[in-house]
Design goal:
The chain is mainly alpha-helical.
């Protein structure tokens, strides 16, 4: 059948969905736990005597649990729908943050972070990325990049909000402030503004208006692509996993230790918080830039360049150079942070389609989360053993170089639209 001539409205409501997803991602577990922990460490040590490795182990445990829970969360999104998973997960996440001020022992902190990684797993990026993949096609990279920059936005404002709250009301006040942001900003936006599909507003993907009821249309492409097991038979699946596992270990290992790392170099707590905020601003801008680039250039080449910048950033940070090098490193590492979750979501949608996107992306992301979980505890353990972060920072350079080699080894598939996917996915499995 012939497709009815597309009719686009002057303003595409999909960009409102992008804005809501951006805010949702900025208040998710990644930003709210990783970017805040460094500012709680002194309070934990002063009140309970926990050292940095002990306290930051809660993050590692949370990420390992999240890694296991991710595929389950992805399957639930595919089966039940986005908001049915997202809303309860966001509520649970906020309530768990509110429970942290009640703790008195380390196992209780770890238990809460385990629950964040399991019961609140749906508040991570899975649901948001699936929603945007359905709303956008030709500008999917930019949409995912803008929404994914919410992590950078979170890394920018969470240290400042946490530092102010801790200074005013102690570490318990910091956790309370973060929970209230989720309950009174994120939750209402998801409930009242977020729409799962463009059809809910009388639109098709990319803003095309729905044709008249009696007009013939071609079938949607949302159901094209691989199942999880079909994707796992391709070498591209495992190359993607290893690529992002390598770089995530480095970047997410450094993030929660950035503030104490800077304090060890004689930088004040307030200035360290501002530098950590600059890291978040660089992440915010980097993710938008990456999203714009991967809509125009082959994504694996874009990732190659940004992983190279990560290697330079780790080398500068680990070399013990003056503060100018710290600032340059912060910008490079922050800007490169956009090349993990967003790039992974984009590549998964282009290489494997949308049929089982949530499950495939969640499985890949779960593997990456294992690496994210090992990073913080490894950085903390190296510090406790050597009194410095330099060794593990310099070890991050070859990890970034490995990621460069792996991503460039992906099969060349410069797919621009979902409608191009059929030709690519009908090739024999690699």
């Amino acid at each position: 059948m012939e497709q009815v001539q597309s009719r686009k409205r002057p303003f595409f409501a999909g960009w409102i969905m992008v804005a809501v997803c951006l805010i949702g991602v900025s208040t998710g577990p990644a930003a709210f736990t990783l970017a805040s922990m460094g500012l709680f460490l002194d309070g934990f040590q002063a009140e309970f005597g926990w050292n940095r490795a002990e306290a930051s182990s809660a993050l590692s445990i949370m990420m390992m649990v999240t890694a296991v829970s991710m595929p389950i969360g992805g399957r639930l999104v595919d089966r039940l729908g986005i908001k049915k998973v997202l809303i309860p997960s966001v509520i649970v996440f906020a309530l768990l943050l509110l429970s942290v001020p009640l703790i008195g022992k380390l196992w209780q902190l770890n238990a809460i972070y385990v629950l964040i990684g399991s019961l609140a797993v749906g508040s991570n990026s899975i649901a948001y990325m699936r929603l945007l993949a359905g709303w956008f096609d030709s500008k999917r990279g930019l949409a995912i990049g803008i929404a994914g920059s919410g992590t950078g936005l979170g890394f920018a404002y969470v240290p400042l909000v946490t530092q102010y709250s801790v200074a005013e009301w102690g570490w318990r006040g910091g956790y309370t402030a973060l929970a209230l942001i989720i309950l009174f900003v994120t939750l209402p936006l998801i409930v009242f503004v977020l729409k799962e599909r463009p059809e809910d507003l009388g639109l098709l993907t990319d803003g095309e208006a729905l044709p008249p009821a009696n007009a013939p249309v071609t079938a949607a492409h949302d159901e094209e692509g691989d199942t999880l097991w079909e994707a796992m038979r391709r070498k591209d699946f495992w190359f993607m996993a290893l690529t992002f596992v390598s770089v995530a270990f480095v970047l997410y290992g450094a993030v929660p230790h950035l503030v104490p790392m800077l304090q060890d170099r004689g930088i004040s707590t307030e200035m360290s918080a501002w530098i950590a905020s600059m890291f978040g601003i660089a992440t915010f801008g980097g993710r938008i830039l990456i999203g714009w680039l991967i809509d125009r250039f082959e994504a694996r080449f874009v990732a190659f360049v940004f992983f190279f910048l990560s290697a330079i950033g780790m080398a500068l940070l680990g070399a013990g150079l003056p503060i100018w090098a710290v600032l340059v490193s912060t910008v490079l590492l922050g800007g490169s942070l956009g090349a993990e979750v967003d790039m992974l979501a984009y590549l998964a949608s282009r290489y494997f389609g949308l049929k089982c996107f949530s499950q495939i992306f969640a499985t890949l992301f779960g593997l990456v989360m294992v690496s994210m979980g090992l990073g913080p505890i490894t950085f903390g353990a190296v510090y406790e053993a050597t009194g410095s972060y330099n060794t593990v920072l310099l070890a991050g350079v070859p990890a970034c170089l490995l990621a460069m080699a792996l991503v460039i080894s992906l099969a060349p598939r410069p797919i621009r639209r979902t409608s191009d996917l059929r030709a690519a996915t009908t090739q024999p499995a690699e």
